[in-house]
User: Fold this.
Amino acid sequence: MKSLLPLLFLIPACYGCVMAQDPAQQYAAEITPETAKTHLTTLASAAFEGRGTGEEGGDKAAAYLAEEFRKLGLTGPVAGSYYQPVELTRNVAKGELRINGTEFTNGRDFYLIAPGPETTVNAREIVFIGYGISDAKYDDLNGVDIAGKVVLVINDGEPLDARGRSLVTGTDAPSEWATSRTKRLQNVLSKKPKLVLAVSNGLAEALTRMGGQTTRPRITLAEDRTQQNAAATAVANISTEMADALLQQANTTLNTLTKKITRRKKSQSATFAVTDFSATFGSSSEPFTSNNVLGYLEGTDLKNELLVISAHYDHEGNQDGEIFFGADDNASGTTGVLEVARAFAKAKAEGHGPRRSILFIGFTAEEKGLLGSNYYGQHPVFPLENTVVNLNMDMIGRIDDKHLQGNHNYIHVIGADKLSSELHAINEKANAAYTQMELDYMYNDPRDPMRIYYRSDQYNFAKYGIPVIFYFSGLHPDYHTPADTPDKINFEMLTKRAKLAFYTAWEVANRDNRLVVDSNKQ
Assistant:
């Protein structure tokens, strides 16, 4: 769809005109493959050991960001510091399950979250609670007492009718029960069951690929009240095969129960006898601190309004001597933040600073559940009501499986239209005028089964009603493996993607009116 571009986005006919008429393009030229490569190869080097949260490599990465912000002339906005300390807890869970005489092992057969001291549970019945939803239009827990009991809950999706429509929303759009990472389990845990068996369709495949990582210490926000309130209840993420073994004595299967929900359009919660079930579980915990890293560039006449440009700097660290380098995830996005910061810093030094202020953030513990950005949202350094937009870069350095055999000149744009039609239009116009990439909205679809929109730090701004864009180059076979290395980064595309973020930020930072918030497609 073609549209007329505002004067800001007209491309001058000569280099001299660029210098005189278009400072945005002048300062975007500061973002180069050469400078990007310097940052990324440092962050994703063996010396940084995969930038694990709470590990020496993660601390080195935070120090690197802080020093780069200092060299750019950005100020430390946390009482003069570049660091916002995030108090975390490291939890180590251990446990085993036995069903009908068969022993199942944590990390190989299931994935365990087990706060509290070691406990043994023996049960001769379980309570099936469907999707664990408590909603006015659909309720799995109405009249069902699960306190002190072993419960079985479907931890994927939500109840659908025969046409594939949500029984909660009544439409093709998923409800928050399907899109939230935690809503259903929080609801179930609030009823104080003894043990939750959460069934996930893709668990067996995930454990085959990443089982070793599931038994590593689990990191949580130390002050998260929901997690603290749920501390007495363990959650075992199990496969459909294990669920069917539990239901064997009742002569039913999980698929049969799910089909009944679809056919009857109502919950099928029920208590089922089991022949033999026992579980032993528990964990130890220790507190520690990791840092969000913040660099502040003050604006001019609209300086009380703020843009946040972000990326997470953490990755999976050193696991038993094997480094998960995280070149794309997310040394690439962190590099993008540093490149955009340098462009804006030079603009300000030469008298072309932004009207609105800009806060550049490297978040910690994204890989542990978006914890650094969650903490910032609960403890903002600048008022959230003054925050105009969050532009987040997470994995912008590769060519994904979808585009590998086709057009490499692309970027996935996620979330731009969900809260602000103006932000969506600004990003599209910036791309049309300057970067001319394919803007792929595949992951912006509310029905995206990967739920990518909810899986990076921008979501912890969007949930407060702040417009966001998540820039993403997509998934590839090296995702979350030690093979995500700097030699596979496409630096030309990384910098072009970072430039799109810069151009969009430039317009948002300098326009007369604050972005309108006029939609809610989350």
About this structure: The mean pLDDT is 92. The chain has two domains: 7-75+298-510, 90-285.
